User: What shape does this take?
Amino acid sequence: MDGKRIEGNEVYALEMCVSILLFAPIVVSQLIPADKSKVEAWFNGIIKPVKERGKTLYLELVKAETEPRIIKVVQDGDGEFDNITKAIESVPLGNAKRVNISIGPGSYKEKIRIERNKPFITLLGDPKNMLNLTFDRTTKQYGTIDCATLTNESSYYKRPI
Assistant: This one.
């Protein structure tokens, strides 16, 4: 990654993902048009911008989504961190703002855990150059509960996209 902030289409894509996650029950209850040219109008008719629906959302979530922090993880050292775990550890306990952890391409061999007291974390990858999260331990070593590559215990988490 070249050290630039997420802007333009990337921000739009992020907003779309947030909207979809927050309003999936509403969207699922209405039929999605088969004609692809009508999907955007259909979506915009259901999901309004945050400014318009702010009073209908949890106040905690509205505050968290304003001015998100961006942390860059790049294995070659061009980011703030070279692994995902260090980036997550840098998020303060009781965090009250959205933190987008932008992860560069490559294979990340680490056990990733987002603890309960670190809400509002988003893990982002580049869909055109996807990252690979791996962890080579077994249930024999860690047990069935603690052997996952990615474990999330926090609120308002967004999965890697």
